[in-house]
Amino acid sequence: MNKKTILYIALGIIILVLLVFTFFPNMTYAVKDFGSDEDKCSPPAGTSEKEWREHMEHHPDIYAECLR
Question: What is the SS3 string spanning 1-67?
Answer without folding.
Answer: CCHHHHHHHHHHHHHHHHHHHHHCCCHHHHHHHHCCCCCCCCCCCCCCHHHHHHHHHHCCCCCHHHC
